[in-house]
Amino acid sequence: MEIRKIQITGGNSYVVSLPKSWVNDAGLKAKDAVLVLPQADMSLLVVPKGDLRKETKSEVLLEMPETTDRDTALRTFISYYLSGYDVIRLRISGSSSGLRSHLKEAIRRKLIGIEIVEETSNGITTQCLSGYSDLPLKKAIERMAIIASGMVQDAVVSLQAGDLALAEEVFNRDDEVDRFYHFIVRQLNMAVRNRAIIEEVGLVAARDCLGYRMAVKSIERVADHAAGIARLVPSLTADSLKKVMKDVAKMSELAQKILGQSVSSLVDLDTKKANDAIVLSKKVIEMDDKMTSELLRPGMEGSSVGWFRLVLESVRRVAEYGSDIAEIAIDLTAKEPNNLA
User: Does 239 score more than 70 pLDDT?
Assistant: First the structure.
């Protein structure tokens, strides 16, 4: 850290000298221009002119043997996608096309805005065509939440009707939520590395990135719980649980309302909506406790009771994740210490 004094020149301009080492590392010389960008935290971002929007695309080459575990290979690929690489080249050693085919299908299913632009017998080249300007962060979060909430609703409907086809559809829709989740995390990672694009992403300051990162993870977990409910449909067919099924539908509706209101409070940074959602979440907990007592009454089928308790837990978690998002919205509305009057 270097401390430099502010000087005044000509009576109207204030000047702060730049460290010589930084100027040399940036490849600058006398009379070169730099961009000075005011930040929400009252700091200034100094960027060498021309570096703010680089024309060259970032590339990476991943090499892995055909024997690589498929899930491991996919996680590795996604990690570079999340890091913000524009072009990812994958080279697979070996003659089999199994791993390559698996990755092609998984990339299309789980990632947004990335296309396979070249394919050979031992590898593929992908390019990310969508950026933060194509699908703004908050719009992506809203779409992600709508899909997750719809999954919860359809999971409960499939449970009531014993509809295995609808349950399978809910389970498959989890990939769509994952696509938005990965895309949003990619945007946030890019914003953290390049503070110049934070406002274009739709945020105010770098600290917002952490809050939104936690929020989208909560939405992703909501979808996971909806898929979990769908998996239980074949196991819950006992007539003795029909009354409780109606109650869980009401509990689910309230949980979905909490999720929607919480996401809205996050997008709008509305503390009233956020606090209302948190209050509503307590009612879901009360409903869960009441239905759990109902399940323990004599005459209930033991095996189905155990499965159904998992359903109640998942619906309750939907409400709790909504409450978590609402708390994040409240936290983001608080002024930072150096901005206080």
Answer: no
Second-level CATH architecture of 59-128: 2-Layer Sandwich (3.30)
Q: Quick one: which of 158, 300, 288 has its CA closest to 241?
A: 300
Question: Nearest Cα to 230, choosing from 287, 160, 177?
Answer: 160
Specify the CATH class of 137-339 in words: mainly alpha
Neighbouring residues of 170: CB distance < 8 A, sequence distance ≥ 6: 151, 154, 155, 158, 226, 227, 229, 230
- Amino acid at position 116, single letter: I
Q: What is the 3-state secondary structure (H, E, C) of 115-144?
A: EEEEEECCEEEEEECCCCCCCCHHHHHHHH
Tell me the pLDDT tens digit for each residue of 104-128: 999 999 998 888 888 887 889 999 8
- In CATH, the number for domain 7-48 is 2.10.260
Q: Amino acid identity of 276?
A: D
Q: Which residues, at least 6 apart from 203, have a Cβ–Cβ distance to it below 8 Å?
A: 137, 191, 209, 212
